[in-house]
């Protein structure tokens, strides 16, 4: 059918309820054992799969322990250590610079405010939100990655195009208590069923509420293009 509910709030509530049923245990899929490792893993994950990041950090976290270790690393050596990751040169630079700031301005501890985190090199609002949520138990917003971006648009929850605008648009319609899980549920559904190129609408638990369902609609609202 593919008919969304009348309001975005009702649509968000219905979508969440069904996805909670479908993915009851979903959570962050990056591996880390402390806040610094979390920050580094999230920085590495930009434009890269969590699976690849986990492979790289298995060795990286054994070699480097503290912010001092990263800040003192040679650029070439750190870049080499992460060279199977997208944009490894830039990411190595950002990590060294962010860790130098963490030592100089934050006594070696990963800061716990949005503004202090986004002041670190290579840390945008999305990375900061993940670190706040999973490192400090502070939920200030909704993490909008590529899956959240695509599915929110497909499901008629937003017409905004860019992550920060989407986040602003979603915050009033998604209950605050669900902000953290919203991201993980959408990532799980994006990976399992509603992928970018060929979503499996036949198998989707949201099909009857999705205004992009291929069974009933011609246009993918994520891109605005015809299926
Ligand atoms: S899989 Fe199809 S029906 Fe389900 S959310 Fe994605 S586009 Fe909509």
UniProtKB/TrEMBL annotation:
One BP annotation, GO: base-excision repair, AP site formation
Cofactor note: Binds 1 [4Fe-4S] cluster.
Matching Gene3D superfamilies: Helix-hairpin-Helix base-excision DNA repair enzymes (C-terminal), Hypothetical protein, domain 2
One Pfam family, short name: EndIII_4Fe-2S
Domain of life: Archaea
Gene Ontology molecular functions: 4 iron, 4 sulfur cluster binding; class I DNA-(apurinic or apyrimidinic site) endonuclease activity; DNA binding; G/T mismatch-specific thymine-DNA glycosylase activity; metal ion binding
Binding of [4Fe-4S] cluster, residues: 194, 201, 204, 210
CDD domains for the chain: ENDO3c
SMART domains: ENDO3c, FES
Keyword Lyase set for record: yes
InterPro entries given in the database record: DNA_glycosylase, Endonuclease3_FeS-loop_motif, HhH-GPD_domain, HhH_base_excis_C, HhH_motif, Nth
Residue intervals of the HhH-GPD domain: 44-192
Cofactors demanded by this protein: [4Fe-4S] cluster
Catalytic activity: Hydrolyzes mismatched double-stranded DNA and polynucleotides, releasing free thymine; 2'-deoxyribonucleotide-(2'-deoxyribose 5'-phosphate)-2'-deoxyribonucleotide-DNA = a 3'-end 2'-deoxyribonucleotide-(2,3-dehydro-2,3-deoxyribose 5'-phosphate)-DNA + a 5'-end 5'-phospho-2'-deoxyribonucleoside-DNA + H(+)
Root EC class: lyase
Keyword Nucleotide-binding found: no
EC number(s) per entry: 4.2.99.18
Keyword set, alphabetical order: 4Fe-4S, DNA damage, DNA repair, DNA-binding, Endonuclease, Glycosidase, Hydrolase, Iron, Iron-sulfur, Lyase, Metal-binding, Nuclease
Family classification: Belongs to the Nth/MutY family.
Protein role: DNA repair enzyme that has both DNA N-glycosylase activity and AP-lyase activity. The DNA N-glycosylase activity releases various damaged pyrimidines from DNA by cleaving the N-glycosidic bond, leaving an AP (apurinic/apyrimidinic) site. The AP-lyase activity cleaves the phosphodiester bond 3' to the AP site by a beta-elimination, leaving a 3'-terminal unsaturated sugar and a product with a terminal 5'-phosphate.
HAMAP family in the cross-refs: Nth (MF_00942)
Protein name in UniProt: Endonuclease III
